[in-house]
Specification:
By secondary structure, the chain is an all-alpha fold. Helices cover 61% and strands 0% of the residues. It has a single domain, classed as ADP-ribosylation/Crystallin J1 (ADP-ribosylglycohydrolase fold), CATH 1.10.4080. It has 17 helices and no strands.
């Protein structure tokens, strides 16, 4: 399968899971199943004919923009992404103050909308500090870090340097989320995405197990790494059982915190590793943070199965689908000679 196919499916899959889950993010299971039937929500809830995604996909796109801007301008990745997040915040304040922006996606009018932005992200970005793994600015382990780092796994194509990929994903999350469990899941997700998008031979389970093993080594001095590893292995084991999906999700949490978001996503992707729709639908129909668990599941299963696995009904009506595809292409083409000049025009400052 062409790698570009996986890049597109990863970002579009994340937006699809996000949009499906965004409609029920704050609803309890009793309400979801009463309103949508025994299988829960399985189709988009359209608004003005469009499937709307949340801040999860917004921040994912700004992460990708920051990565590419850093590459073309030879800047620090974390500094560039921090600047991109500050611009994302401007879109949430809805106060356009100039046209000289770092991120070209600031020109996309559909991104100038508030979609329940995370308060931890807002407070961290407006604090005039840039958090890091060594110098955290808070003790948050909310899922606002892990839900936005899939582009990091796509961007770095050399899987032999995967520990650097993992650590950058952790640092990007630590900009806003300072708890160990706020950034360790981000490193783990980037690891999974990196392996399955650049290695045709690896199974999803092997990629997940390898990500856990690397996290244990990379963060061996962290006091919460044992708990994280145990939860992730639990997700793997549950995916191999014939338990009821809702009961299994309850075993893993609700997804409001990062380690639970990733564990639920890993469970759903592994349980239905050959069925994009089933994986994503399972990931959003529960009491918890449905848009984030949907987004991360969509990132993983999309990168693993590719575009052909995504039902047409999920691509139709998805807002700014063309922009998401374009950014996926940019992530794929940035180091390919025949595309460099065309791509760099958007990102060079």
């Amino acid at each position: 399968m062409e790698t570009l196919n996986k890049y597109k499916a990863c970002l579009l899959g994340g937006a699809i899971g996000d949009a499906l889950g965004y409609a029920v993010e704050f609803e309890r299971e009793s309400s979801i199943f009463s309103k949508y039937g025994k299988n829960g929500i399985t189709e988009y809830k359209l608004k003005n004919g469009m499937a709307l995604f949340s801040d999860d996909t917004q921040m994912t796109l700004f992460t990708a923009n920051g990565l590419l801007s850093a590459y073309y301008n030879k800047n620090s990745y974390t500094d560039s992404i921090h600047t991109s997040y500050k611009e994302w915040y401007i879109t949430q304040s809805l106060k356009q103050n100039n046209n000289n922006y770092h991120s070209w996606i600031m020109k996309v009018p559909q991104l100038w909308v508030r979609r329940a932005p995370g308060m931890t992200c807002i407070s961290a970005i407006t604090s005039r500090q840039k958090g890091s793994v060594r110098n955290p600015i808070n003790d948050s382990k909310g899922c606002g870090g892990v839900m936005r780092v899939a582009p990091v796994g796509l961007f770095f194509k050399n899987t032999e340097r995967i520990s650097q990929t993992d650590m950058l994903a952790a640092e990007i999350s630590a900009i806003t989320h300072g708890h160990e469990l706020g950034y360790i899941p981000s490193a783990t997700l980037a690891h999974i995405i990196n392996l399955i998008s650049h290695n045709e031979k690896i199974t999803l389970k092997d990629a997940v197990l390898d990500s856990i093993s690397h996290a244990e080594k990379l963060f061996k001095s962290c006091k919460h790494i044992g708990y994280f590893s145990k939860l992730m292995h639990k997700a793997v084991k549950l995916s191999e059982k014939k338990y009821n999906d809702l009961e299994s999700v309850h075993e893993l949490g609700e997804g409001w915190v990062a380690e639970e978001t990733l564990a639920i996503a890993v469970y759903c992707a592994l349980k239905y590793e050959n069925d994009f729709e089933k994986a994503v639908v399972t990931s959003v129909n529960h009491n918890g943070d449905s848009d984030s668990t949907g987004a991360v599941t969509g990132n993983i299963i999309g990168a693993y199965l590719g575009m052909d696995s995504i039902p047409r009904k999920f691509l139709d009506n998805l807002e700014i689908r063309d922009v998401i595809s374009e950014i996926a292409e940019d992530l794929y083409n940035y180091d390919i000679d025949e595309h460099q000049n065309e791509t760099r025009k958007k990102y060079i400052l």
